[in-house]
Amino acid sequence: MSNLARREFVTATSAAMISSCALPRALAAGLENDNRFSFLLLGDTHFDRMEHHDFEWMKTDFAKSIPQVETYCRHTKDTLPGLLSAARTRLRQADPSTAFALHVGDMVQGICGNKELAKRHSTEGWEFFKGAELGVPILMTKGNHDVTGPGSVEAYNEVVLPKTAQELGREKLDRTSYSFKQGDNLFVAFDAYDRTAIDWLEELVRETQFHRLFVLVHMPVVPYTARSNWRVYHLPRDAERRERLVNLLGRHQAIVLCGHLHKYSLLVRRCKTGKFAQLSICSVVKNSATNQSTILTDVSDYGPKLTDLEPTFSPETLDIRRQMLVDEKPYVEHFDYANDSGFAMLSVTEDDVLAEIHSGTGGGKPWKTVSLTKLFA
User: Are 284 and 75 in contact (CB under 8 A)?
Assistant: First the structure.
């Protein structure tokens, strides 16, 4: 970055900080040599309200999603505020202090029916999260539900992207994948639904100096449930792209942060260039109590038998899904899994990345704390 460009960036960022108290130290992203910080991690939240949907349209095109919409509307009203309240309490106790909050996609449920409703849906969803007064910038990653239904892509591009840019202290984002730096740490929001995103990412890491790489992506890179075909670049035509992504992550010992499958998981995946860790979180809290069930804690639990967790899911694809897990199993060196929902707090220092996994909306002690860096040892 030239000196002139750097001054312009600092000026724009400073103006954004002054205009909004929600931008503490506002991600002067890499301009500050701050390698000690914490951040909040949210998974799928599926914010929803009944008045955001054209149900006559849904009866024709998305009838099977109507019960899901009703469920997420209750979730938004009854449990999501409690989860954000618990997260806010934890944020204010963080040491090192918190720099930002990351959301790995499916901020909203989507499937509204037209552009007007989709824009209202995204706007009120964003306002809901900002209204939680977390006190830090909130940075969104694109999920499939964020862009499902007529007008939803336009709503995401016209509402969520500009607001995310504002949180970053920027005028705009040129694409749905973006990056920022915090000290020597490079954070990448990777659009799992953009086949060209791997080209962009490869160029980014070639041109950027960094010590540690975090990749936010809605879908997991490595499958870890019965729905093993729900992963980045899962189609046979994208096998070469997937190989490039996996090897890039391994080369940089990346920490992948993802969601989509509505389960907790932590694993380490080996590839020919090295290893990377993958942490998955879900923020669809079914009730305010602790939510853990079906806990698996051994690498021997990883493999085709994971399809037994959902024996009725898509029987026509069972053989394909089992084979995907067979193919991945030799490369998985660490595996934790739980049917759990809540949020995570990650604390970053020069030497370590410590992840706290919080269940439900209690806001008390985490049910699991793990050093992600030590997983590479």
Answer: yes
The three-state DSSP-derived secondary structure of the chain is CCHHHHHHHHHHHHHHHHHCCCCHHHHCCCCCCCCCEEEEEECECCECCHHHCCHHHHHHHCHHHHHHHHHHHHHHHHCHHHHHHHHHHHHHHCCCCEEEEEECCCCECCCCCCHHHHHHHHHHHHHHHHHCCCCCCEEECCCCHHHCCCCHHHHHHHHHHHHHHHHCCCCCCCCCCEEEEECCEEEEEECCCCCCHHHHHHHHHHHCCCCEEEEEECCCCCCCCCCCCCCCCCCHHHHHHHHHHHHHHHHCCCEEEECCCCCEEEEEEEECCEEEEEEECECCCCCCCCCCCCCECCHHHCCHHHHHHCCCCCHHHHHHHHHHHHHHHHHEEEEEEECCCEEEEEEECCCCEEEEEEECCCCCCCCEEEECHHHHC
Residues of the chain with pLDDT under 70: 1-33, 287-292, 363
Residue 58 CA: distances (Å) to CA of 62, 111, 149, 373: 5, 8, 10, 46
Give the pairing of strands 274-280 and 264-271: antiparallel
Tokens of 119: 């824009």
Ramachandran category for residue 342: left, alpha or beta (phi over 0 → left; psi -120 to 50 → alpha) = left
**pLDDT tens digits for 140-196?**
999 999 999 999 999 999 999 999 999 999 999 999 999 999 999 999 999 999 999
Residue 224: HSE in the Cβ half-sphere, 13 Å Cα cutoff:
36
Joined together, the tokens standing for residue 76 give 């938004």
pLDDT at 20: 31
pLDDT digits (tens, 9 = 90+) for 258-300: 999 999 999 999 999 999 999 999 999 876 555 567 889 999 9
Q: Cα separation of 107 and 160, whole Å?
A: 10
pLDDT at 114: 97
pTM over 0.85, yes/no: yes
What is the C-alpha separation between 147 and 122, in angstroms, rounded? 10
Instruction: Report d(CA 340, CA 289) in Å as an integer.
Output: 11
| Cα gap 82→197, rounded to integer Å | 35
